[in-house]
Amino acid sequence: MPDWPTDPAQLVSAQRLLALETPAAWTPPADYLVAGCWVCFSRGLSGPGRAGDPAWGAAVVLAGGHVVGRSSVAGVATAPYAPGMLALRLGPLLNDVVRRLTPRPDVLLVDATGRDHPRRAGLALHLGAMQSLPTVGVTHRPLLATGTWPADEAGATAALIIDTDPVASWLRSKRGTRPLVVHPGWRVDLDIAVQVVRDSLAGRRTPEPLRLARQSARRARAEQ
DNA sequence: GCGACAG
DNA sequence: ATCTTGTCGC
């Protein structure tokens, strides 16, 4: 496995190569294991931050709605946040958390974009490629893509496009709440990405693997 | 030139 | 991103 890029020029170059790759499409098996990963920072931190910011990462694996594995780690951010460069800030820590995760999930949810990115290679795609793991991105809003919201009905979707390319999808995960953005990641296409997120909702707005990973990361922070 | 900009 | 607080609608 190659090392995680450590400077902006290296990341941009890695993203350009990543965008050209065409790995075999993945489809979920019956009773697949779905994981989520999350990073949280010190309370009160605001703005883009900087390299060395204390950070806590966690990942949770679910099987049929039950937690079957967890990992968490205390570490640091490796760069300030900049749009299109999130992988430089969070990549090494998330890579570490996911590497320690057992059992190995079939698919991983990441709070980041995929093809909705200046070089069509957001962190959800990048993390999956580094881990050889199918990934799905879930964010509150698009990075570059545009599209109107879906109907206010649970499960409704609407296209998010860059130029004419559908790169992500709005998904109304719960009626009466803001829709999520679902991003196909490594080895996952748009329809499968939406299916995986719908499968993991458990009636809430936020997919259960991400909600539990966030909870786990905050718990790790509280123990410091 | 200006604003917007995953987390 | 993170956090609190308040307010509204069911």
TrEMBL record:
The entry's keywords:
Cytoplasm, Endonuclease, Hydrolase, Nuclease
> Cellular location of this protein?
Cytoplasm
Q: Which GO terms describe its cellular component?
A: cytoplasm
Biological process GO terms, please?
A: DNA repair
In terms of Gene3D superfamilies, this protein maps to:
archaeoglobus fulgidus dsm 4304 superfamily (3.30.2170.10)
Lineage, top-rank taxon, reads Bacteria
An example molecular function term from Gene Ontology annotations: RNA endonuclease activity producing 5'-phosphomonoesters, hydrolytic mechanism
- Per its UniProt record, what PANTHER family does this chain match? ENDONUCLEASE V
> What is the protein's given name?
Endonuclease V
Name the source organism. Kribbella caucasensis
Taxonomic lineage from the root = Bacteria, Bacillati, Actinomycetota, Actinomycetes, Propionibacteriales
